[in-house]
């Protein structure tokens, strides 16, 4: 296991990294399509379409394709997003669950005094409740959602903001995610990045995006940030 030197701060993606949330997202997306009188969408489809925020997810559902149709009616898109937010909120995120090892590893990092943040493309309105519900909110000093800044991942603005706020050099920040958006954002910010193999990456292996380290299990992160040293 490769151990990184001098890591002082860790930023985490949420969906597909800490939380298996696709069952709730897929249910809300399917309910949205059916409420609009359109064909439903499947868990498998939504798994390959998430990662770029809710607007793009809904655009892909309406287009039934990874590429959002340029002919998509903006008013339909707006109404679909409104319905999706409603259904996702009303569903109570009951099918979402932390991945194995997440709770224990975050707790160990917190005990070791490593500050952590969430950097997700998920709409920020949903994030605090999810963190509280899964009893991990206390571990994060910053929570950045997909609408916190004008740009979202793969733009590195959130990582640059963290480095400026916490007075970090780029080699002192580690990004942990499951998607090429996480890898691209970290590379653009010149910080280290761990790619997890078990999440949602548009059906592609995370290794294809060339993260610094690839992990199959979240708990292996303890060795990467040298919790045992």
UniProtKB/TrEMBL annotation:
Biological processes annotated in GO: carbohydrate metabolic process; DNA repair; glycolate biosynthetic process
Active-site residues, as the UniProt record annotates them: 13
EC number(s) recorded for this UniProt protein: 3.1.3.18
Matches recorded under SUPFAM superfamilies: HAD-like (SSF56784)
Signal peptide residues on this chain, from the entry's feature table: none
Pfam families: HAD_2
GO molecular function per UniProt: metal ion binding; phosphoglycolate phosphatase activity
Pathway stated in the Swiss-Prot or TrEMBL entry: Organic acid metabolism; glycolate biosynthesis; glycolate from 2-phosphoglycolate: step 1/1
UniProt KW Nuclease keyword: no
Binding site residues for Mg(2+): 13, 15, 178
A single GO cellular-component term on record: cytosol
Cofactor or coenzyme needed: Mg(2+)
Name of this protein: Phosphoglycolate phosphatase
Organism of derivation: Photobacterium aquae
């Amino acid at each position: 296991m490769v151990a990184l030197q001098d890591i002082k701060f860790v930023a985490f993606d949420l969906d597909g990294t800490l939380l298996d949330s696709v069952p709730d997202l897929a249910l809300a997306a399917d309910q949205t399509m059916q409420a609009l009188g359109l064909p439903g969408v499947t868990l498998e489809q939504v798994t390959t379409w998430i990662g770029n925020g809710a607007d793009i997810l809904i655009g892909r559902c309406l287009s039934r394709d990874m590429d959002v149709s340029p002919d998509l009616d903006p008013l339909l898109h707006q109404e679909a997003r409104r319905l999706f937010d409603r259904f996702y909120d009303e569903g109570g995120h009951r099918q979402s669950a932390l991945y194995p090892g997440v709770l224990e590893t975050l707790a160990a990092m917190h005990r070791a005094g490593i500050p952590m943040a969430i950097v997700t493309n998920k709409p920020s309105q949903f994030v605090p409740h999810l963190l509280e519900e899964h009893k991990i909110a206390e571990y994060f000093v910053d929570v950045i959602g997909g609408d916190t800044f004008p740009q979202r991942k793969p733009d590195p603005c959130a990582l640059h903001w963290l480095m400026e706020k916490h007075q970090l050099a780029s080699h002192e920040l580690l990004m942990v995610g499951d998607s090429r958006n996480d890898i691209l954002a970290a590379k653009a910010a010149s910080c280290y990045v761990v790619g997890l193999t078990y999440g949602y990456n548009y059906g592609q292996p995370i290794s294809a995006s060339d993260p610094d380290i690839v992990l199959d299990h979240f708990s292996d992160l303890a060795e990467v940030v040298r919790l045992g040293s």
